[in-house]
Task: inverse folding
């Protein structure tokens, strides 16, 4: 989802892009990673590879670790060897996720306390990348991603809305829906500025999953009252979902960049520009 959006944005900006899917490069293979980076000699490497199936990671944390922790370690070493900048995509799941009444956005320097295998392995990946290539790594934590490519909550809600379905959506989990188009542009900004360290790359503002679904229904011309609110106790999943995935964005000032725009404006553009919401249906 993010990789394809990023390639499109880079190519529109005239960048020379080498896009390697997992069939072309296994990031868990240290030798293959080193050879690929040495062969192409890129100025910037962006790691969009991850095991993001949070429930599957609970039962196979070994595989999740190889992809989410060993992968960025190998990439960081290869970038350090060649002098390339590494932009590594991470997640809000590195934090504990608060409770339903939690109300303070997590700053970039908040102490990570992941509660899931996915969060633990992604945190290990952050630390590995920053340890192996501290002077050339930018970690961008994001969350609640949606885009024209791949699967996302927004895409699912667009399809349900188009079919006139009633949906039950949790109203006690809060986060920041983030459009891959905006995140792709921010990755390009980071590459241009050479920024390093940890940044929070989510849209500003906050909303519950129920609020997001209601807004998708409204923007696509469906009846928002078809979105019914439930609480998370009505859902049972192997990996606990965070109640609070709201991140703060103060550190962008050190890179001379503003935070990403608010989630409502981004969602409106994502569902109206280009192919609009029909691209998600």
Result:
């Amino acid at each position: 989802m993010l990789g394809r959006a990023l390639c499109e944005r880079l190519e529109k900006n005239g960048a020379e892009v080498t896009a390697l899917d997992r069939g072309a490069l296994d990031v868990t293979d240290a030798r293959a990673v080193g050879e690929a980076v040495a062969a192409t000699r890129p100025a910037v490497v962006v790691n969009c590879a991850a095991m993001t199936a949070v429930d599957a990671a609970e039962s196979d944390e070994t595989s999740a670790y190889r992809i989410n922790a060993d992968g960025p370690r190998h990439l960081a070493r290869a970038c350090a060897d060649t002098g390339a900048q590494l932009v590594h995509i991470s997640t809000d799941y590195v934090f504990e996720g608060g409770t339903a009444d939690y109300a303070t956005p997590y700053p970039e320097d908040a102490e990570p306390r992941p509660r899931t295998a996915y969060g633990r392995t992604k945190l290990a990946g952050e630390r590995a990348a920053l340890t192996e290539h501290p002077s050339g790594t930018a970690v961008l934590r994001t969350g609640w991603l949606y885009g024209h490519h791949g699967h996302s909550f927004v895409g699912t809600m667009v399809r349900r809305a188009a079919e006139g379905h009633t949906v039950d959506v949790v109203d006690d989990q809060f986060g920041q829906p983030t459009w891959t188009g905006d995140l792709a542009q921010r990755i390009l900004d980071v590459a241009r500025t050479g920024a390093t360290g940890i940044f929070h790359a989510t849209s500003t503002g906050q909303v519950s999953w129920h609020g997001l679904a209601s807004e998708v229904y409204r923007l696509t011309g469906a009846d928002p009252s078809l979105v019914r609110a439930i609480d998370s106790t009505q859902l049972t999943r192997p990996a606990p979902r965070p109640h609070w995935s709201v991140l703060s964005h103060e550190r962008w000032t050190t890179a001379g960049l503003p935070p990403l725009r608010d989630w409502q404006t981004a969602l409106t553009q994502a569902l109206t520009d280009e192919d609009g919401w029909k691209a998600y249906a």
